[in-house]
Design a protein that fits this description.
170 residues; mainly alpha; 10 helices; globular
Length: 170
């Protein structure tokens, strides 16, 4: 709840208390890593994700979160490896495909990004962010008709689309 309220430091303190009570509680490490990321402490977040993975090497969320932190550090190769690992553990984990698609898009691989966002949509047809991100990748690859169709779908699912993007399609 503290993360949702924007109290990232309070969340970190609470997760640290949970870890002190049970140092093998791998979910607490992953949960503590997220507010660290929000505060820009990517290395601290990665350290927590590493600990969660050391305790439970099959915890797909820790790999996905670590991939996001590595992406923020522009370690795209490391991020892709983490998203690949999460997908290998759980091929139905839509967030991992979106994360990997985001990294591919940042790297200029728009077709690869579109494929990953499409897979996330196949898994979860109501995933607004996947439509939004696929629309952006389609736009960057020159497919404005496809981009606008995805942006419209994202809007219909409740995504918040910046006005300048909406103006391109409406």
């Amino acid at each position: 709840a503290k993360v949702l309220l924007g109290d990232n430091k309070g969340a970190i303190a609470d997760y640290s208390k949970a870890i002190a009570i049970d140092p093998q509680y791998f979910i607490a490490y992953t949960n503590r890593g997220y507010p660290k990321e929000q505060l820009g402490d990517y290395q601290g977040a990665i350290a927590d994700y590493n600990k969660a993975i050391a305790i439970n090497p099959q915890y797909d969320t820790a790999y996905t979160n670590r991939g996001n932190a590595k992406s923020d550090l522009k370690d795209y190769q490391g991020a892709i490896a983490d998203f690949n690992k999460a997908i290998a553990i759980n091929p139905q984990y839509a967030n991992a495909y979106v994360g990997r698609g985001n990294v591919k898009g940042k790297s200029g691989d728009y077709q690869g990004a579109i494929a990953d966002f499409s897979k996330a949509i196949e898994i979860n047809p109501q995933y607004a962010r996947a439509y939004n991100n696929r629309g952006a990748a389609k736009g960057m690859s020159g497919d404005m008709q496809g981009a606008c169709a995805d942006i419209r779908r994202a809007l219909s699912l409740g995504a918040k689309i910046p006005p300048e993007i909406q103006r391109m399609c409406f």
